[in-house]
């Protein structure tokens, strides 16, 4: 079964501002303002991850009567640009946070466990989403978000699949909601599931979507659990590049002989994925000082926050509600799969 069955190009929708004839600066400025607001929310309420706050604020802004005309009109080109270009830049910098030496210290059994969790979650969620009849690329994007690293992974795959902005926004909203619920639900299950702090950390790292949500969830069991969770999560992030490359090759095979609007065939591996891998390799050399890595992490968070605010503004709740029941079933099903498979994997690897 082909992963994608969408047309190469999508005609502009009526009433939308043309991106080619409009300046992106109002929308980019609004995305930056949204990221700063999300940062303030995170400072005031540390339990709310920055990226989660950015998505929620974007959705809220799109439905405020005073901002709605601006977001749907003048600011739309810049907000869409933020959701694409700033997301790519943030994903490249995400590679600098991936310490392969630390990941490999967990052992090959844990590596195999995480790979199994990613594969089972991705394929199971994709299959269920298709069976439920979710529109467009939503099954593919939701499967990616659950199996790898939430909204960042959705943004990466949407770049190579050519997904519609509304599909991306709806998928980000669902995955963000479920990841946020995990912050409250998973700590309550540590005792009933008889998990040690280290096992709980590995379970959280293998099953929660966004890095910020992993930190917020695992820290409830102490620094030992947090360290294990972050390392396992980084291992999942490392699988972003091969997954995106696989989707890119699938798209290239399906569109063989078809050129993009610029007259070029789609690249076999997107440039931002190559940048991500280059950043991982650069981090592995050990030549970057801690100050540079800290700066890169801050820049990555800022770029992703602005991008996710832009994606959040594309969510239209009345439209989303039409598939809300099916999306909720998919979200719950995917949550059960990733939590169940990762729990079994943690028990098997000790």
Describe the protein in words:
With 350 residues, this protein is an all-alpha fold. Helix content is 72%, strand content 0%. The chain has 17 helices and no strands. Helix 1 crosses helix 2 (50-62), helix 4 (76-94) crosses helix 8 (151-161) and helix 7 (138-147) runs parallel beside helix 17. The chain is globular, with a radius of gyration of 19 Å.
Query: Structural class, judged by helices and strands?
Result: mainly alpha
The tally of beta strands, per DSSP, is 0
Give the distance, in angstroms, between the N- and C-terminal Cα atoms. 36 Å
Q: Give the percentage of residues in beta strands.
A: under 5%
How large is the count of helical segments?
17
Q: What is the radius of gyration?
A: 19 Å
* Helix fraction by DSSP (H/I, runs of at least 4): over 70%
Q: Please mark out the parts with pLDDT under 50 across 5 or more consecutive residues, or reply none.
A: 1-21, 257-264
**Based on CA inertia axes, which overall geometry fits?**
globular
Largest sheet: none
Order of helices and strands: HHHHHHHHHHHHHHHHH
Chain-averaged pLDDT: 83
Reconstruct the topology from this structure.
Blueprint: H1 25-44, H2 50-62, H3 68-72, H4 76-94, H5 100-104, H6 108-132, H7 138-147, H8 151-161, H9 165-189, H10 197-207, H11 211-218, H12 223-238, H13 240-254, H14 271-285, H15 290-312, H16 317-320, H17 324-349
Name the descriptors.
17 helices, mainly alpha, 350 residues
At a glance:
It contains 17 helices and no strands. The chain has helices spanning 25-44, 50-62, 68-72, 76-94, 100-104, 108-132, 138-147, 151-161, 165-189, 197-207, 211-218, 223-238, 240-254, 271-285, 290-312, 317-320, 324-349. Helix 8 (151-161) packs parallel to helix 13 (240-254).
């Amino acid at each position: 079964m082909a992963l994608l069955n969408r047309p190469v190009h999508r005609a502009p929708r009526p009433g939308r501002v043309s991106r080619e004839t409009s300046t992106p600066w109002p929308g980019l400025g609004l995305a930056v303002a949204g990221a700063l607001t999300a940062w303030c929310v995170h400072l005031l309420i540390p339990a709310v991850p920055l990226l989660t706050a950015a998505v929620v604020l974007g959705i809220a802004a799109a439905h405020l009567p005073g901002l709605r005309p601006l977001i749907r009109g003048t600011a739309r080109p810049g907000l869409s640009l933020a959701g694409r270009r700033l997301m790519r830049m943030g994903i490249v910098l995400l590679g600098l946070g991936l310490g392969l030496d630390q990941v490999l210290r967990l052992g090959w059994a844990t590596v195999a466990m995480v790979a199994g969790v990613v594969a089972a979650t991705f394929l199971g969620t994709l299959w269920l989403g298709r069976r439920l009849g979710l529109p467009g690329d939503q099954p593919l994007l939701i499967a990616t978000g659950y199996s790898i690293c939430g909204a960042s992974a959705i943004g990466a795959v949407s770049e190579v699949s050519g997904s519609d902005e509304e599909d991306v926004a709806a998928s980000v909203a669902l995955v963000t909601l479920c990841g946020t619920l995990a912050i409250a639900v998973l700590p309550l299950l540590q005792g009933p599931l008889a998990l040690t702090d280290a096992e709980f950390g590995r379970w959280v790292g293998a099953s929660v979507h966004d890095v910020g949500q992993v930190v917020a969830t695992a820290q409830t069991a102490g620094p030992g659990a947090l360290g294990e969770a972050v390392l396992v999560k980084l291992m999942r992030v490392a699988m972003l590049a091969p997954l995106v490359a696989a989707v890119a090759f699938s798209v290239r095979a399906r569109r063989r002989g078809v050129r993009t609007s610029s007259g070029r065939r789609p690249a076999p591996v997107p440039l931002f994925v190559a940048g991500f891998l280059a950043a991982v390799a650069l981090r592995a050399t050990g030549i970057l000082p801690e100050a540079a890595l800290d700066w890169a992490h801050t820049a990555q968070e800022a770029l992703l926050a602005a991008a996710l605010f832009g994606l959040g503004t594309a969510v239209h709740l009345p439209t989303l509600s039409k598939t809300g029941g099916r999306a909720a079933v998919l979200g719950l099903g995917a949550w059960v799969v990733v939590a169940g498979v990762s729990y079994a994997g943690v028990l098997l690897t000790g």
